[in-house]
Design a protein that fits this description.
Elements lengths: L11 H9 L5 H9 L8 H4 E2 L8 E3 L4 E4 L1 E3 L5 E3 L18 E3 L2 E3 L4
Parallel strand pairs: 1-4, 3-6
Antiparallel strand pairs: 2-3, 4-5, 6-7
Bound molecules: zinc ion (ZN).
Length: 109
C-alpha cells in the first residue's frame, strides 16, 4: 500500500476497458489490462474469480456502479447480466449522482 486511497474514479478507464472487451479472450484482455496497472487487484473488483463472486453490478464508489464480469469455461470474458441497463435501476437515495458504467440513473428529465 502506498499513498492515499486510490479506489473509485482513478480506475474508471480500467473498468471501461474491461467492459469494452466483453466477448474477447480473457488471456489477451488480462495481459493488456495488467500492463497499465501496478497491481492486479482492481481488475478483480469487476471480474469474478469464482462463480460465487459473480454479481450483476459491482459498487466501486459511494454511488458508482459497473457491470460485473466473469470468465466462462471457454476463457472468454462475459458480462454476468448482459441485459442490465442504467434506465432499469433505481437509486437508493436522491441526493447523489448514481451511475452504471458511467451512465447516470434515477433521474427523470
Ligand atoms: Zn445520496
Amino acid at each position: 500500500m502506498r499513498g492515499k486511497a486510490r479506489r473509485g474514479l482513478d480506475y474508471t478507464p480500467l473498468f471501461r476497458f474491461l467492459l469494452s472487451r466483453a466477448g474477447a479472450t480473457w488471456d489477451s484482455v488480462y495481459s493488456e489490462a495488467i500492463g497499465r496497472l501496478d497491481r492486479p487487484d482492481p481488475i478483480f473488483w469487476l471480474v469474478a474469480r469464482h462463480e460465487s463472486e459473480r454479481r450483476d453490478m459491482v459498487r466501486v464508489g459511494e454511488s458508482t456502479w459497473f457491470s460485473g464480469l466473469f470468465v466462462d469455461e471457454d476463457g472468454i470474458l462475459r458480462l454476468v447480466n448482459p441485459g442490465l441497463r442504467a434506465e432499469d435501476l433505481m437509486p437508493d437515495c436522491s441526493c447523489c449522482t448514481h451511475t452504471l458504467n458511467g451512465v447516470r440513473f434515477g433521474t427523470k428529465t
